[in-house]
Structures are given as C-alpha cells and as structure tokens.
Amino acid sequence: MRKFKQLGLIGCGMMGGSFALAAKKAGLVDFVVGYSKSPQNAEQAKHMKVVDATAASILQAAIGSDLIMVSVPVAATFEVFKALQFGLSPDALIMDVGSTKQSVMEATIKALGVPPSNFVPAHPIAGKEKAGIMEADAGLYLGKRVILTPSDKTAPSFVTMATDVWHALGMAVSRMTAEAHDSIFAAVSHAPHLLAFAYINGLNNQSAAADFLKFAGPGFRDFTRIAASDPDVWRDILIANRKEILKQTGAFQMSLSQLEYAMCVGDPAALRALIEPSSTARSLWEMNAQASPRDAEN
Amino acid sequence: MRKFKQLGLIGCGMMGGSFALAAKKAGLVDFVVGYSKSPQNAEQAKHMKVVDATAASILQAAIGSDLIMVSVPVAATFEVFKALQFGLSPDALIMDVGSTKQSVMEATIKALGVPPSNFVPAHPIAGKEKAGIMEADAGLYLGKRVILTPSDKTAPSFVTMATDVWHALGMAVSRMTAEAHDSIFAAVSHAPHLLAFAYINGLNNQSAAADFLKFAGPGFRDFTRIAASDPDVWRDILIANRKEILKQTGAFQMSLSQLEYAMCVGDPAALRALIEPSSTARSLWEMNAQASPRDAEN
C-alpha cells in the first residue's frame, strides 16, 4: 500500500486531528503539516503532536503534501479549494470528511473551474458531539464505516488509493453517489440533529426549563446527545442539505400529526397501531455503520 | 426499618419484576405473590424465582400482603383498584410505578370512591426499552431516583414507609405533586418518546427506509433508542398525559419552525444563533435523575 510523505491537514478540529493521529499511528504518513484559521489552534495541535509543523496558509499546508485532508465546516470548502487552486499537485490525493457531499463537490468545481480528478469526497460515520482539537482521538475511526462519493470525473486510481487509506485506519468502506449520500444522511443523521436542536430549544424557551432538566433521565440523555453538536458544523450541514432534510421533516410531521390526532381523540387502539410499528422497527434495527473492515465494500 | 411479610405483585413485567427481585435482595420482603393477566406470564415469573407463588386474581395477590406493588400500564389502574376494593388491608402499603401520576390517582378515586390513605404513587426514573418479565433485573433501580406524589389524603406514615422502601433499594427519593410530576415528565420523557415514535414512523413510511437504516450510525442509535419502548405502556402514557404532552410538542413545533425558516431562507447567522443555545444547554446538562441515595430528599 502507498505510504505518504506528507499529510497537509487543512482544519485542525476533532475530525481532522483524529485523522492525522490515526494516519500516523497506522504508518501511513511520515510528517503532518497543519493549517487552522486560528493560529493558536494550529499551535495547540502541534503542542499535542497531532501535527509536526504548522502552516501559515492553506496553500502552504498543501505545497509538498502528497495527501491533503480538508476537515472544515462544509461551507468553508469553496474558500479552501480557491486557496489551493494554484498549489495542488495532480499526484496528491485530496479528501474531506464533510457530512454533506453534493455541496462539497459543487464548491470544488466552483473554485477550480473543473471537478478535480484527485479529490475523493469522504464521509466517515464517526465522531462525537464535542468539537475541537482537544477531542482528537487516534481511535475515532477504528471499526467504523466511511462513505466515498467519487464523481465520474474522479480518477479510479485515486478512489483505490483513498479506499486503501481508510482501510488502513480499520474502517469499512462504502461507495455511492453524492446524491444518494445526501438523501440517506438527511434521513438518518441530519433530520435527527435538527429535531434534537428544536426539542432542546423548545424546552429552554419555557420558564420551567431548569426544573425540567433537573429530573431528566437516561431517555432524555440519549435522545438529546446529538443536540450538543458543534454549531458551526451543523449550521453548514443544515443549510447545504436543506432540500433533503426538509423532505425528511415533512415525513416526520405527517407521522407526528397522526400520533397527536389519536391522542387528541383518545383512541387507544389507533395510538397503539401507530406506536407498535415504530417499536418493532427500532427493536429489530442493528447498527451496520460500525463494522469490521473490508466486510462491505460496495 | 419495617420489613414486609408478603409482597403482592400485580402485573409481572420488567418494572414490577425488577421491584420484586430488588426488594427480596434487600431483605425487605419474605415472600412474593404475583398476579399477571396472562397466567403463563405469572408462571414464567415463578420459574424465574421473581415470585414465590402465583395468584389467580388481583384480589388473591392482595389478600394477606402488607406491601402491594401495582405495575401495570397506567390505563389498567382503575381495573386493578376496582378488583382490590373489598380486599385491601388499611395497613398495607400500596404503590405503583406508573409514568403518569394524575391519571393514576384519578383512577384509584374512581374505583374506591375515596382517595386511599395507604396508596403512595411512585414513579421510579429507571427502566429499559425492553419490556416483559424476562427483562426483570434486581439492579434496575440501584442508584436511580424515584418520584413520590402523595396527595393531601395520603397518610404521612405511609409516605415515610414508602420512602424507606425505595431508599432500601438504593434510590434517591423526591416528592412533588402529581400535577408537577406530569408537567415535568411530559417535557423530559413523554414528548421525546412521542417525537422518537414519529421520527421512526416517518422513516419507515418511505420506500427507501431499508437503505436509510443500513447506514444509520451512533447518533441515530441514541436518538431513537426510546422508540423501541413498549407499545402498551406508551399508548396509555400518551393518552393519560396528553394535555401536558401536546403543550410540549407545541413548544417543539415553534422551535422547529424557527430552525426550518432559517434553513429555507439560507440565513447561516440566524441558524447558528438557534443551534448555539441548544448545543450549549445540552453540553452543560448533567443527569441528576441518577443519584446516590439520600442526596436530595426534597
């Protein structure tokens, strides 16, 4: 498998920092150069040995790097590729870790004029609700799944190279179109985040909020865990993929109305008939996103 | 502390079975008689040594018992107290474990004509989404909190006795009115269950549901865990406490509309300003429902 001389890490946060640590641990890269919008943050990454050197600009992090990882909130993708346009080696493998894939691809095309053949968009199904370089973790990706969404302009050799990289981090690799990705993750990730934000805000806007939170238990804890997610990351996701997400909240609203109607009219049989399929479906579901490597390379 | 000669367990499910096991383990009771609507289920409880003997009727489980635990879906409360009306010893301590408290108190008054002075309504903030006697667990309540909602007709001696029982199981005990209870738990438990049911149904009603579920990850897992809850138990809760729950979904809808509006108009700053308070509030929240015993006897 190809080893890399230098990883250019653009964005030093939880996701990117974890990638740098994991790549080093796996012996994939010799040297990591990190760029962050906040120089202090890049220094912190260096202090934590997540990166070996800091770069003063996006371009500087890319020059001389044969592996480039863009790990910024998705709306910053355009700015990153614009800065890279005159410094990208055609031999370097470029990836990102964004949770929306159509918007990322559109941003690269807008910035570069053409879809870059050496860019393999990636979305690792891993993370935590805590953001920032302090949360970087060499084990974050191990045993998880990554989705690659190459376009028809992406060179197959780079897709293979990207697949090898994620495999080396102990991940299962799936491939699909950016459109399929965005529709699936609107349904199973973006919409739940939106609903969890709305639920917490709905509580917080009530004068009794403090009393409520005092007695909240394990059900609340799990239901709302994702509401603690990073505001910058999720601001960008909710806007970039809004079309698909609003489709999902539409489906949710329909189901909620049915349940509320059965409650309002006090119809226990109708209500049970609405709860039962949900209870059964969720009981039968087993997580597949977390999988042993090489088990589902579709 | 008072020990009990015989526990009459009415309803042999996860909550009641766990109470019987824990009470025996704590040396609170010598003998357990169990009644279940399904004789097979009562036999299973006996086979598992959750109960020592089975009763053929609700009344038979109560006669001779100085501790009676009613652990049935809340809408069955009336039927239980109706069956008990001519067999209740005024010295027996009666409790329940229902998740709504006004409806339970109303049902006892309706069944008995007067509010029973020896009934101490209880809601242990513990459980799991899996139902049934097979899920009974002697450790379910340990380290958790229970809410008692005695009325002004409940004899103080029985409230003290009930408090001692739950303390003996290693629980923190809080006391409040049934009204306060129902308003708080609509907000932090019942509404989240309703939203989780609606979300899963919204997914399931789409033709791509199987594809969606295949790629759902840890965020989905936690957000939807409570959607696997028991349909009978939750049918009753959602109807019994619908007034408070619908107030909560109203507050939720308002917050969701604000978020959706910011997405629709593509206003990143407004969207961030809505996500940030949610993220901060949830990050700062710490679970208090799970607490060491005797730490908050208010």
Gist?
The structure is a homodimer of 298-residue chains. The first copy, chain A, is built from twelve helices and nine strands. Chain A is of the alpha/beta class and 298 residues long.
What does this structure look like?
The structure is a homodimer of 298-residue chains. By secondary structure, chain A is α/β, with parallel strands linked by helices. The first copy, chain A, is 50% helix and 12% strand. In chain A, strand 2, helix 2 and strand 3 form a beta-alpha-beta unit. In chain A, helix 4 (77-84) packs parallel to helix 5, helix 7 (178-204) packs across helix 11 (242-264) and helix 11 (242-264) crosses helix 12. Chain A is elongated, with a radius of gyration of 21 Å. At the A-B interface, helix 7, helix 8, helix 9, helix 10 and helix 11 of A face helix 7, helix 8, helix 9, helix 10 and helix 11 of B.
Please provide the count of β strands of chain A.
Answer: 9
Instruction: Look at the helices and sheets of chain A and give the structural class.
Output: alpha/beta
Looking at the chains present, what oligomeric state does this protein adopt?
homodimer
Largest interface, with Cβ-Cβ < 8 Å?
A-B, 94 and 94 residues
Q: Work out the strand percent of chain A.
A: 5-15%
Question: What is the succession of H and E elements of chain A?
Answer: EHEHEHEHEHEEEHEHHHHHH
Strand order of the largest sheet of chain A: 3-2-1-4-5-6
